[in-house]
From TrEMBL:
Keywords of the record: Ion transport, Membrane, Sodium, Sodium transport, Transmembrane, Transmembrane helix, Transport
Species name: Suricata suricatta
Name of the protein in its database record: Solute carrier family 13 member 2
An example Gene Ontology CC term for this record: plasma membrane
Similarity comment: Belongs to the SLC13A/DASS transporter (TC 2.A.47) family. NADC subfamily.
InterPro entries: Na/sul_symport_CS (IPR031312), SLC13A/DASS (IPR001898)
Disordered: annotated segments: 165-211
Residues in coiled coil: none
Domain of life: Eukaryota
Single GO term (MF): sodium:dicarboxylate symporter activity
Biased composition (Polar residues): 173-195
One record GO biological process: cellular response to lithium ion
Length: 592
């Protein structure tokens, strides 16, 4: 019997993929409407995404097969959804991020900031969080975490290395670097008769307590890296994929929205949210892993100066090993700054941007998008040489001259570009478009009309909690892809600004702090050892609550003037919202 269950478990992915479509067949058979057909597709894809029986990107391709066969959309219409402007922005942003990683510019930035901040416990924690959050705003959260965790452990190794030679001769382990509890054999002594007696408390207890403190600080340092990587990603439109999912869904569901979600508007809303959440996370980690002795946490106790100098020396040595800034690093830095400036000034909203002035359409809106800018800078990186232009000898072919390589080459891009996310984004946009075309969105809107009696802040808060819980077990991209079209329909049904629920739920999808499987940064930190699931769950639970409260504050205050949330927008009006007055002020909405 046990062997039978083991066999079923071993083949669980195959069984799910083959049996799940059959179990769901009664829905389209008993209710032969386009709405039911679309619901069948969405439920099937949602369950496959949750179980990961198939790769996420493969499941995202299902609409190409199901929608044409069910008469929901033509194949040509479905395929267009897989390479929209948002996908182009994703690719262009990653081209720049890959160049930053390829030339080690991110490591230079990280080490330089750590040298400025110092290595006192609380400041060291803050320094790693600031650096990780800043880098994850521009490059992938996974790459940022993978780079920062080894640096953190190298610093901790020096910070807690015993300065005397006695412990080295006795074979003393470094409890922080190895992230293990001290061996119990070190706390006992043997007499000649073979009996084991504990070492007197006066000599053993201080060491055990110190080892415990070191282990706790190591756990805090590891968690601060993965948490700040997730928090930092919410600050920019390209920082994490759910943000791009939101932009794509808004543009797909509401084509006349006037590019309301762009790089500048998102940054104005999400960056203050990120800063507040990051500082609160730092305080929570400090209290949990360093205790309430803030004088000691900030290094005013006057002890362990040797260890701090040794840790500082490690960062200094790593920084010196990078050497002087190369031409390639300087070129990437300049192009990166140009990209950010162009993003901010293209169509900021509160003044005419260069996109409105140089490339306007008939309505005066910019015809150039954020994706256009990203691809433009990305292409330039394939043209700019990585060294000062000149001719050198080709080492493989003596006697021949060779030009320096460009900042980017296709081999590097092909290896580091997460192409699966492009398909995953496209699958989400196809789902949203299918919901609209089939009438499922309108049907959902009618069913959700009773929610009009619930105060909007309560709706937003409950939805944020639900999304934050759901994203612990499911990919954050899949979570936003599934929920955002439903939330948009709900908002239209109750005459609520769609962004009032879509924005906070998108941010909540990044609050994956409790489980190692919730997000790749958590898994990377957990793989280094020293952390139990209970450690991460206990720390992440309160951080999730803090995150939801901060997001609720953001959506009910400074987001109002940025996105005009006071009134129901004209671009969200449809036949399903005939009972709503365009531009009406919702009296149940909170006033900032």
């Amino acid at each position: 019997m046990a062997t039978c269950w083991q066999g079923l478990w071993a083949y669980r992915s195959y069984l799910i993929v083959f049996l799940l479509p059959i179990f769901l067949l009664p829905l389209p058979i008993l209710v032969p409407t386009k709405e039911a057909y679309c619901a069948y597709s969405i439920i099937l894809m949602a369950l496959l995404w949750c179980t990961e029986a198939l790769p996420l990107a493969v499941t995202a391709l299902f609409p190409i097969i199901l929608y044409p066969m069910m008469g929901i959309m033509d194949a040509s219409e479905v395929c267009i959804e897989y390479l929209k402007d948002t996908n182009i922005l994703f690719i262009g942003g990653l081209l720049v991020a890959i160049a930053v990683e390829h030339w080690n510019l991110h490591k230079r930035i990280a080490l330089r900031v750590l040298l400025i901040i110092g290595v006192r416990p609380a400041l060291l924690l803050l320094g790693f969080m600031l650096v990780t959050a800043f880098l994850s705003m521009w490059i992938s959260n996974t790459a940022t975490t993978a780079m920062m965790v080894p640096i953190a452990h190298a610093v901790l190794e020096q910070l807690y290395k015993t300065p005397t030679g006695k412990d080295v001769e006795e074979g003393s382990d470094n409890p922080t670097f190895e992230l293990q509890e001290p061996s119990p054999q070190k706390n006992v002594s043997k007499l000649n008769n073979g009996q084991v007696h504990p070492v007197p408390p006066a000599s053993s207890e201080p060491k055990v307590q110190k080892d415990r403190q070191q282990l706790r600080f190591s756990q805090g340092m590891s968690l601060c890296v993965c948490y700040s990587a997730s928090i930092g990603g919410i600050a920019t439109l390209t920082g994490t994929t759910p943000n791009l999912v939101l932009q794509g869904q808004v543009n797909s569901l509401f084509p006349k929205n006037g590019n309301v979600v762009n790089f500048a508007s998102w940054f104005g809303f999400a960056f203050p949210t990120m800063v507040i959440l990051l500082l609160l996370a730092w305080l929570w980690l400090q209290v949990l892993f360093l205790g309430f002795n803030f004088l000691k946490n900030f290094g005013f106790g006057g002890q362990e100066k040797d260890q701090e100098r040794a840790a500082f020396h490690v960062i200094q040595t790593e920084h010196k090993l990078l050497g002087p800034m190369t031409f390639a690093e300087m070129a990437v830095s300049v192009l990166f700054v140009i990209l950010v400036v162009l993003w901010f000034t293209r169509e900021p909203g509160f003044f005419l941007g260069w996109g409105n002035l140089a490339f306007p359409n008939k309505d005066g809106e910019s015809m150039v998008s954020d994706g256009t800018v990203a691809i433009f800078i990305g292409i330039i990186m394939f043209l700019v040489p990585s060294k000062i232009p000149g001719l050198t000898q080709d080492p493989e072919k003596p006697g021949r001259l060779k030009a320096p390589p460009a900042l980017l080459n296709w081999k590097t891009v092909n290896e580091k570009m997460p192409w699966n996310i492009v398909f995953l984004l496209g699958g989400g946009f196809a789902l949203a478009k299918g919901s609209e075309k089939s009438g499922l969105s309108e049907w959902l809107g009618d069913k959700l009309t009773p929610l009009q009696n619930v105060p909007p802040p309560a709706i937003a808060f409950i939805l944020c909690l639900m999304i934050a819980t759901f994203t612990e077990c499911t990919s954050n991209v899949a979570t936003t892809t599934l929920f955002l079209p439903i939330l948009a329909s709900m908002a239209q049904a109750i005459c609520l600004h769609p962004l009032y629920v879509m924005l906070p739920c998108t941010l909540s999808a990044s609050l994956a702090f409790m489980l190692p499987v919730a997000t790749p940064p958590n898994a990377i930190v957990f793989s280094f050892g020293g952390l139990k699931v209970s450690d991460m769950a206990r720390t992440g639970f309160l951080l999730n609550i803090i995150g939801v409260l901060v997001i609720t504050l953001a959506i009910n205050s400074w987001s109002f003037p940025i996105f005009g949330l006071h009134t129901f927008p004209s671009w969200a009006y449809s036949n399903a919202t005939a009972h709503c007055m365009v531009g009406q002020t919702n009296t149940t909405m909170p006033r900032p």
